[in-house]
UniProtKB/TrEMBL annotation:
PANTHER family: ADENOSINE/GUANOSINE DIPHOSPHATASE (PTHR11782), ECTONUCLEOSIDE TRIPHOSPHATE DIPHOSPHOHYDROLASE 1 (PTHR11782:SF32). Its main location: membrane. GO terms for cellular component: caveola. The lineage of its organism: Eukaryota, Metazoa, Chordata, Craniata, Vertebrata. Homodimer; disulfide-linked. It is a multi-pass membrane protein. InterPro entries: GDA1_CD39_NTPase. The chain crosses the membrane at residues 12-38, 461-483. ATP binds at G203, A204, S205, T206, Q207. It is found in: Membrane, Caveola; Membrane. Catalyzes the hydrolysis of both di- and triphosphate nucleotides (NDPs and NTPs) and hydrolyze NTPs to nucleotide monophosphates (NMPs) in two distinct successive phosphate-releasing steps, with NDPs as intermediates and participates in the regulation of extracellular levels of nucleotides. By hydrolyzing proinflammatory ATP and platelet-activating ADP to AMP, it blocks platelet aggregation and supports blood flow. It catalyses: UTP + 2 H2O = UMP + 2 phosphate + 2 H(+); ADP + H2O = AMP + phosphate + H(+); CTP + H2O = CDP + phosphate + H(+); ITP + H2O = IDP + phosphate + H(+). GO terms for molecular function: apyrase activity; ATP binding; GDP phosphatase activity; ribonucleoside triphosphate phosphatase activity; UDP phosphatase activity. This is Ectonucleoside triphosphate diphosphohydrolase 1.
Amino acid sequence: MSAQRDMKEKNPWHTPVTIIFSVIGVIAIVALVTVAVLQNRPLPQKYKYGIVLDAGSSHTALYIYEWPAEKDNNTGRVEQTLSCKVDGPGISSYASAPWKAGKSLTKCLEQARQKVPVKRHSETPLYLGATAGMRLLNLEDSSASTKVFQAVEEALQKFPFSFQGARILSGQEEGAFGWVTVNYLDDRLEQNLQTRGALDLGGASTQISFVSDNFDGSDSPDNAVAFRLYGNDYNLYTHSFLCYGKDQALRKTLAQQTKSGPGTILDPCFHPGYTETKNYSVLYDSPCVSDRKPQGAPATFNHTGKGNFSRCQEVVKRIFNFTECKYSQCSFNEVFQPRLQGPFGAFSAYYFVMNFLNLTDTSIPLEVVTERLSRYCATPWNQVKEQHPGVKLKYLAEYCFSGTYIVTLLTKGYNFTSENYPNIKFIKKIKGSDAGWTLGYMLNLTNMIPAEAPDSPPLPYAGYVSIVTVIALLLFVLFIFSLRPLWPRCSKHPQII
Ligand SMILES: O=c1ccn([C@@H]2O[C@H](COP(=O)(O)OP(=O)(O)O)[C@@H](O)[C@H]2O)c(=O)[nH]1
């Protein structure tokens, strides 16, 4: 008994003071870790929103973008959260009844009203950008274009968003913002990776934009756009060809074949067996072809398909001017183009057409692409209709022309070859967001891409919590060891003093 009492006195680990210190130590360490975890836990995600309407020549589409509200200076990743295709044609088609242009937009804006949380409505910027269709209407009849914009603005102001205006984008802006979108979504800007060129094919215009080592803007300042993004400088080459979107290019190709105003044209770009009566005044009702309208032609012509790819390509080539170039090198129509460089993303109608034709895979050699197109163009119209019962006849009839036009534009127009054709990727979306100018436009107007690389926090959240936990565990172990003299001795033979 006396030996046990002596042992207790020498090893007083269970004295009230030691126990209290131990408990306080453990509580302090647990509290430290808990605070580190709780304090730094990401708050439930809240978002900010932006809305852009793309008023194209053939249709209008609305896109809603969202990004995390907590991130400083809006540096969080921006993603598309909704897209809505407006019913009916592009706003430029409403020149004779402008109010209908405004009304056409309301269904998609209602969807946007539902999608964006009510408390965010008033701070959500809303932009409308019009492209080549309105550029053409503005050239043709600027007062009609003004009236369409008035009607559209009136309609947009009725919604609770922060309306930032409706305007026509220049071709240069359309090209440059398409390039920003593709490279932002690919994370190439922030990570300073080689950029991807952008090829955009619309109904009324087409854009090519890329960075090339042999372009600094001095050869052709009109084609130069300088950007400083995330601390890096880019000298972007961009050009927009008005009237070379696929719908206007089709008019130009038909105009090539109807110069003399014949009653029938045998068109190699349409399937054999296709025949439609068309109106000369409708065909020539565009500033892209109006100066070529044949005099004294009948009111209508018989548009008959012959289905011959190589002859179609010959006619298509005639809408380009390859003869003159006052620069070291040109694409076509005396437009400077530096050497093609890097990977390219081809979107909008490039994608729609090549996807329909099953030709989005650019590892398919160009010779095989032309073989397949030849076979497709030669397919009788009845058979084509049978094979694609769900496709709108207007689109279906034009895919032979559109495919031929795309291949000709890329190879003869922009000088892509068998070697660099595989550098092109036909894309619709990148990480859930549509490729197109709209996202780049919004990022620019909301200053969401900083000119300089943002400072990164010294430690990410997970690193901070891990370090605090490790330090707390070390402290705990040290604390336990510091109490070592007080540990109970568990030898078989208690030491008797
Ligand atoms: O499912 C679709 C949607 C659109 N298009 C075509 O893609 C082009 C898109 O043109 P947009 O209206 O964007 O014209 P922009 O104003 O940019 O020239 C037009 O030729 C449309 O006919 C298509 O082939 N398939």
